[in-house]
Amino acid sequence: MELKMFLLVSGLLVGSLVALGGASGSPAKGCKDNKPPVIEKDCHEPAKNRTDKKENETVKKSFPVLSLDYENVRLPFEISLWVLMASLMKLGFHLMPRLSSIVPESCLLIVVGLLVGGLIKLVGEVPPVLESKIFFFYLLPPIILDAGYFLPIRQFTENLGTILMFAVVGTLWNAFFVGGLLYGVCQLQSANLGDVNLLSCLLFGSILSAVDPVAVLAVFEEIHINELLHILVFGESLLNDAVTVVLYHLFEEFSNANTITATDVFLGVVCFLVVSLGGIVVGAIYGILAAFTSRFTSHTRVIEPLFVFVYSYMAYLSAEVFHLSGIMALIACGAVMRPYVEANISHKSHTTIKYFLKMWSSVSDTLIFIFLGVSTVAGPHEWNWIFVGATLFFCLVARVLGVIGLTFVINKFRIVKLTSKDQFIIAYGGLRGAIAFSLVYLLSCDHFPRKNMFLTAIITVIFFTVFVQGMTIRPLVDLLAVKKKQETKRSINEEIHTQFLDHLLTGIEDICGHYGHHHWKDKLNRFNKKYVKKCLIAGERSKEPQLIAFYHKMEMKQAIELVESGGGSKLPSAMPSTVSMQNIQPKRSSQERALPQLSKAREEEIRKILRTNLQKTRQRLYSYNRHTLIADPYEDGWNEMLIRRKKMKDLEKKMNNYLTVPAPPSDSPSVARARLTSDPQVRGLKSATKNIPSIKVDFASPQNPESFSVEDEFRQKGSQPKESKEDDGGLTMKVPSPEKQKKDKTPDEEPQQRLMRCLSDPGPAAEEEDEDDPFLP
Amino acid sequence: MGSTSSTLLKIPNAEVLMQETGFSPAHIIRLHDRFKALDKEGRGYLCPQDFGAIKELAMNPIGDRIIGAFFSPGKETVDFSTFVKILAHFRPVDKDRPKEPNSPEPINSRSNKLKFAFQLYDQDKDGKISRDELLKVLRAMLGMQVTEEQLESIADRTIQEADLDRDEAISFEEFRKSLEKVNIDHKMSIRFLR
Fold first, then answer.
1. What are the residues facing B45 on neighbouring strands?
2. Is B135 an interface residue toward A (CB < 8 Å)?
3. pLDDT in tens, A116-174
4. Per the database record, which ranges form the EF-hand domain (chain B) (predicted)?
5. Torsion angle, CA of A240/A241/A247/A248, rounded to 10 degrees?
6. Which residues of chain B lie closer than 8 angstroms to A670, CB-CB?
7. I want to staple A127 with a disulfide (CB 3.0 to 4.6 A). Which of A117, A220, A614, B191 is the partner?
8. Domain residues of chain B, as ranges?
9. How many residue pairs bridge chain A and chain B with CB atoms within 8 Å of each other?
């Protein structure tokens, strides 16, 4: 039933799209095609197909109550329509689980593109083609940023040597092998390809050789192979962009010159280094800028995600200005800024960034494949059996040979060798995609008279790799019993022991006098901790050790799970210990520690004073401000909240039984602090009873968000923080300045908002594990 | 190869060592050179001060434990063969080694690597990592940056997670199980020693 409705709606949509596409008549960019743009008159014809029938009323020469002015909104309207159609298609596939389990999404989308293109052509109009500019500037960056931001740094750096070998040497090998052999084929008399010179062939080969990140992502994401293979193929697809860019420009330049000298080759190598390293440097600079900016965003939380996106996009564009590798810049920017930005931004911003990136990359990815289909129908083709067949054949052979040869060399240097199964998957996963298509499209007609033939050939290769390889890779993976991705999360044990082993290995390396992998990693970590973190991370979080951060995250997740499983159900065996999520109390100097302890009674007194005083000031907080997101207390969430409150009450009762520390008033100060900051449920409970809106208040308040969270605490149990204001001297309680409470905010805010969210929304495909990775795990 | 074989002769028990540890002659020579470099007074054995002289090791949070691992209980010195045998734990695993049924497990097997790491935790050698021992390690690694309560809660949580037989301590089997997803062969191998 759902499916039928969906089909109906999408049919209508496609119909209108076709009609509009026809009406507007965007010109194709084929070499020999010079069709003039369609005249205005046609606008009225498809109007009849549209659901809007009102303008068919009698035309009197009076004031037009309703008029049609499509041209005004043509461009945004069409873009939106395309995006909408793409998203509906995506929806549709997931309504048909059987189909989507056999055929990867990318294939289905290409087929849809073909259909739409065919429809448009049937109507008699020219289907729009995937313009390279649109592709490179609007469609590609979100996908790459998404990949770069969530790149698993640990696996990436561990396998960097292998990845680089595949990306650089493998791509070069592919390019020259395919290019050279194609030239050989072109020389055959029977082929009628005499006018294709060596440089064209080499250029074509270099375009063809690059494994495409979009296609790889699309296919590999669905098959869930183990992380090693995933990062190898994916990393290769990202890093080979530099090689492709250099080769492309190189051969394009040479095709003008017609002679190549040794200096040119040398310059080419230098160019490669400049392009790749330059791209990375540009990306890193923007990444650091973004991290630095995020340090100051504590008062304007709402625009935090914007910084991440804009800085990254600027990195990409800046790299493109200098013809450096934009993809590498984007990856470097995302990877560099992530650990620092995540330490600085609020939880909501973090979620926003994640969602937006996933959403944009998903839409881009869908659009790319659909347009690929449409362009296939549209573009002028020149089919030449020999050329196309040879291209396909050489492409596959080159890939296989390249992988085997390189693995042979690489295995000599790897600790964990690549087996032949791994090699097969790597070779098989070398998919080509839209980047290659766009690059061919960019070729100028004058220098490359056989451009259409190239286009046809590349489309064939793309189709073959995406359809045949994409469809068969999943059964093959199952058949060969390739290890799949392990879905479980890291435990605290693993984290501790891994760190321990890191230290151990570093120590052993020092004993051996060997400056290996661990030694440098350790040095980098020290440098990072000592200098970089201080600059780029706001407040006290700069001193937080990785392990603690990991531990907090883990506790948080467990707390959420506890609540989600609801009061009344069994408690998991590992209770989040109540002392866990306390403030970081950095012991700054020995001087502070040396001060004498206050008596507990006195502390309690102070706390009471503070509590009563601060409760009064709380009223000031809720001033209206467009930049805040203060929720309406009478919103829909009311009921949910009541339910949750009840759950939390039950939960608290249960948890109280298990508490290892005595009830709050008689606690030692730090433990009391710990208790109240730790239990999100408890706190949430109390705040629910006292002041409903506070649960949903975003920390984008004009006030210092940290001060707000402090007040939150005070409301329930009253704790230490603002003591020094009231009572100087003699106080031992270190005053975590409002900034320090930042850490507090996380446990406070997260679970409450998360509770809301968790109940309704499972979130995008979990990249949770990657987020847990510390800076250099 | 001529120079290696002559240098090899100078090293006592080189053949036996190579047999036991699986190191190649080149590795043995390299390690011997390193041993001599550390043994500044040329006594033929190392004492804790020699290890202490390695400055990066001093910065390592568990540096003293590592040094302690080289010295068998009761002994004050480390001779070359012990040195090599300890370091043999970190040799990458030979995947395609033929499994002779009667031969003892190689020193660099996954199990032995884990045992070595376990011993570093378990200082009193009772076969279990108790809460205190874990706390000591955490304190060493996290140092001045966290409060005692946090350390304790982390330790509790760790034991809770790993402890399957509920004896409030982590035995070797539990240790091994908690690390089953970690690629120990990769994690505990030094490429240099191949």
1. B79
2. no
3. 888 888 888 777 777 788 888 999 999 999 988 888 888 888 888 889 988 999 999 99
4. 109-144, 150-185
5. 150
6. 147, 149
7. A117
8. 12-89, 104-184
9. 151
CATH code of the region B104-184: 1.10.238.10
Distance of CA A306 to the CA centre of its chain: 14
Strand partners, B79: B45
Whether residues A511 and B57 touch (CB distance < 8 A) is answered with yes
Reported as a single tens digit per residue, the pLDDT across B90-119 is: 887 776 556 566 666 777 788 888 888 888
* ipTM confidence: 0.91
- Give the CA dihedral A257, A260, A262, A264, nearest 10 degrees: 40
A12 touches chain B (CB under 8 A): no
Q: Do A497 and B186 touch (CB under 8 A)?
A: no
% of chain A residues with pLDDT over 70: 64
Q: How many helices (H) and strands (E) does chain B have?
A: 12, 4
- Taking CA atoms, what residue in B is nearest to A492? B158
CATH of B12-89, one of 1.10.238.10, 3.30.360.10, 1.20.950.20, 3.40.120.10: 1.10.238.10
- Number of residues in chain B: 194
Classify A566 in phi/psi space as left (phi over 0), alpha (psi -120 to 50) or beta: left
Tokens in use for A11? 């049919």
Q: Hey, are the CB atoms on A585 and B66 less than 8 Å from each other? A: no
Question: Nearest CB to A516: which of B149, B158, B192?
Answer: B192
Q: Is B159 on the interface with A (CB under 8 A)?
A: no
Site of tokens 């001045």: B144
Task: Determine contact: B87 vs chain A, CB below 8 A.
Answer: yes
How far is it, in rounded angstroms, from Cα B27 to Cα A24? 74
Phi, psi of A236 (to 5 degrees): -60, -45
Q: Does B97 touch chain A (CB under 8 A)?
A: no
Are A492 and A550 in contact by the 8 Å Cβ rule? The answer is yes
- Dump pLDDT digits (tens) for A375-431: 888 777 778 888 888 888 999 999 999 999 999 998 888 878 888 888 888 888 888
Distance (Å) of CA A724 to CA A588, A728, B19, B89: 17, 5, 68, 54
Range A202-211 average pLDDT:
87
Distance CA A533, CA A701 (A): 26
